[in-house]
Design goal:
This protein has 3 domains: 22-35 and 542-648, Sandwich (Immunoglobulin-like); 40-55 and 223-523, Glycosidases (TIM Barrel), CATH 3.20.20.80; 74-206, Sandwich (Jelly Rolls). It is 20% helix and 30% strand. The chain is built from 11 helices and 34 strands. Bound molecules: alpha-L-arabinofuranose. The site of alpha-L-arabinofuranose has 12 residues, from loops.
């Protein structure tokens, strides 16, 4: 009985399609609106070990012994017969921001010391070199150091000795080449020859980092970002901006300058979920605000820092700074603008120049608060707004509308921020694919003269927020793509949008889904990653109105833009159904028969298709060519697909 119904329905659909084929008319004779060609960006937050243990290529966890459990990540290790004692000392540290260091007392000449477990192990690649460094001093005897790269069960892959340790803190370095590839190795640092050695800032980096910067980024992860060609980069959060308490908030000033002076804090995601505990998750700030601006410059992405507004995460303590303390938060914002843009002889510009970048970074936007709500936020935002507009009227300010894209808090924020004439308002949505399909016309109704919109965080959830079973499948990605056509069509209102979260370590995540999954050696983009890539690689600078006629219930969505410099018309079409759809395309005579169009199609064998380490390219865009034979022509859009067509126009 059930089967009969399904067959009947399918037959009806086919008949309906045959009777009235869908049409997409790109109204190339009508003028659209100017949009931001950099509207598709990225949002980098240290969640899911995305930064420490992720894109920041440092392989040693708790390198400075500043975790509250100062030996977390470290265990005693010795060669056969080696004996001694390890302890944490604080008497004469390398500096006050980094008060703890490790003492190894080796009681025999046999190697004795510590092993570091890395971030869920350490990945070693044969053929790669690994650069070891540490602050070291000898306290007694004439010891040396033996540095080893080993497998999880202790098999030695590489070994180097460091002799002549001095009695004062000094940086010692060596480089090692493992003779095998392992995903979850360890680093041993052992004292040889007997005696007492003290260590701090123990570091191990792959020699090859992105752009060859010492202490830089994992090349595969940074390249995945570069391939997106993001228009902007939002950083550092997200909830990590807020902190569970104000003491743990992200403070940009403690993230710049020499590494050993950057002050570690607990990561907001450390103890956020009992179901996904991460007691070893801290922020070392090896990737701090200087490195952030540098990465933006390397990616050609406009920086969009988000700052704490004097409020801790309202899902946690919701702690508010005292009114008398708010001035310091506002001053931090003013100083950040000077750090980014000030001349090299200004107080904060000089700090940037001392780090190797005398030229300003060209900051043009600043976000105040992440997912704040209520009058307390409005009061604080108003203070930032007044001070920043007075000193830097050229900086566009991004205010936030809370964690949800509708509801009382959202409406309240919008009405107050409209009165305050906020430039841009940050909206967020984590919802089922059905929400994204249903909201493709959300911005058709927005006020064209009010604040602009930054859709700063979104992703389609196959289950629900915080569910551990959300999937990164094609169906979710197609829903995001459908919704993004609505953002693009309304690019005069929606100036920017970014997916969240960006990265997740397969053995260390707290939040699903994401754009990019990685382990200690490998990485891959999800179908959502390729949706972002297709949009960001094929933007435009002006919209072209689109008229779409399709049968009721058809999940067909489209947007069109013109890339004026390239002389191209770019059409994006989403088919959110399980069957291919034939569509009559009418480009209004903008292109001529005989010309060829480039086509990029993202689809898969089902809406459930996912990428994985085993099949990282199961769902990726396929490029093809389309020969134009007549001004109106039929095109078959695959089931569950995003298709981007680029036409050279007259
Ligand atoms: O993207 C993960 C989290 O979702 C962000 O930190 C927060 O802003 C949002 O609730």
């Amino acid at each position: 009985m059930k089967e009969t119904v399904i067959v009947t329905l399918l037959a009806t659909q086919v008949l309906a399609q045959a009777a009235a084929p869908a049409t997409i008319t790109v109204q190339t004779d009508q003028s659209g609106v100017a949009i931001n060609p950099g509207m598709w960006g990225i949002f980098l937050e240290d969640i899911n070990f995305g930064v420490d243990g992720g894109i920041y290529a440092e392989l040693v966890k708790n390198r400075s012994f500043e975790f509250p459990d100062a030996l977390m990540g470290w265990t005693e290790r010795a060669h056969a017969g080696g004996v001694g004692k390890i302890s944490i000392a604080t008497e004469t540290p390398i500096n006050a921001a980094n008060p703890h260091y490790l003492r190894i007392e080796s009681a025999s000449s046999v190697a004795f010391g510590v092993a570091n477990e890395g971030f869920r192990g350490i990945g070693f690649q044969t053929g790669e070199r690994y650069d070891f460094s540490a602050q070291v001093r000898a306290r007694s005897g004439s010891p040396g150091l033996l540095v080893e790269l080993v497998t999880a069960d202790g098999r030695v892959l590489a070994q180097e000795k460091i002799e002549k340790l001095s009695a004062n803190w000094a940086i010692k370095k060596t480089s090692l080449q493992p003779n095998a590839t392992v995903n979850q190795g360890r680093l041993n640092v052992l004292v040889v020859g007997g005696g007492t050695v003290e260590l701090d800032m123990v570091s191990l980096f792959p020699h090859h980092t992105w752009k060859h910067r010492p202490g830089g980024l994992r090349p595969d992860l940074a390249q995945l970002l570069a391939d997106l060609k993001p228009g902007f980069m939002r950083f550092p959060g997200g909830c990590v901006v807020e902190g569970s308490k104000l003491a743990n908030r992200f403070q940009w000033k403690t993230t710049i300058g020499p590494m050993a002076e950057r002050k570690l804090v607990i990561n907001r995601w450390n103890d956020a979920f009992a179901t996904r505990p991460a007691p070893d998750y801290f922020q070392s700030f090896g990737f701090g605000f200087f490195e952030y601006f540098q990465l933006c410059e390397d990616l050609g992405a406009a920086p969009l820092p988000i700052l704490n507004c004097g409020m801790a995460c309202q899902f946690n303590s919701g702690e508010l700074c005292q009114p008398a303390e708010l001035g310091q938060y506002v001053q931090d914002a003013l100083d950040l603008v000077e750090f980014a843009n000030g001349p090299a002889d200004s107080a904060w510009g000089a700090k940037r120049a001392a780090m190797g970048h005398a030229k300003p970074f060209g900051l043009k936007m600043l976000g105040i608060g992440n997912e704040q709500w209520g009058q307390a936020y409005i009061d604080r935002y108003a203070k930032f707004h007044a001070a920043l507009k007075a000193k830097y009227p050229e900086i566009k300010l991004v205010a936030c509308a809370g964690p949800a894209p509708e509801g009382e808090h959202f409406q309240f924020a919008w009405s107050k921020l409209r009165e305050l004439q906020a430039d841009i308002i940050d909206e967020h949505s984590f919802a089922n694919p059905s929400w994204f399909f249903a909201n493709t016309h959300r911005y058709d109704r927005y006020d064209r003269n009010g604040p602009k919109v930054f859709f700063g965080e979104f992703s389609a959830l196959t289950d629900k927020t915080l569910s551990l079973t959300n999937l990164n499948n094609l169906g979710a990605a197609v829903a995001e793509a459908a919704w993004m056509t609505g953002l693009e069509r309304n690019g005069d209102v929606v100036r920017m949008a970014s997916y969240a979260p960006l990265f997740a370590h397969i053995d260390g995540w707290q939040w699903k889904p994401e754009l990019i999954w990685f382990d200690n050696l490998r990485s891959y983009g999800t179908p959502s990653y390729y949706v972002q890539k297709l949009f960001a690689n094929n933007p435009g600078d002006v919209t072209v109105p689109v008229n779409l006629a399709a049968a009721d219930g058809a999940k067909l969505y489209a947007s069109a833009t013109r890339a004026r410099a390239a002389g191209e018309l770019i059409l994006k079409v989403v088919n959110g159904t399980e069957t291919p759809v034939n569509v009559m395309l009418d480009l209004g005579g903008a292109t001529a028969p005989g010309r060829k169009a480039k086509v990029f199609t993202l689809t898969g064998d089902s809406a459930l298709a996912e990428n994985s380490f085993a099949e990282p390219t199961r769902v990726i865009p396929q490029e093809s060519k389309l020969e134009i034979t007549s001004p109106r022509f039929e095109y078959k859009f695959s089931a569950n697909s995003l298709t981007v067509l680029r036409f050279k126009i007259k």
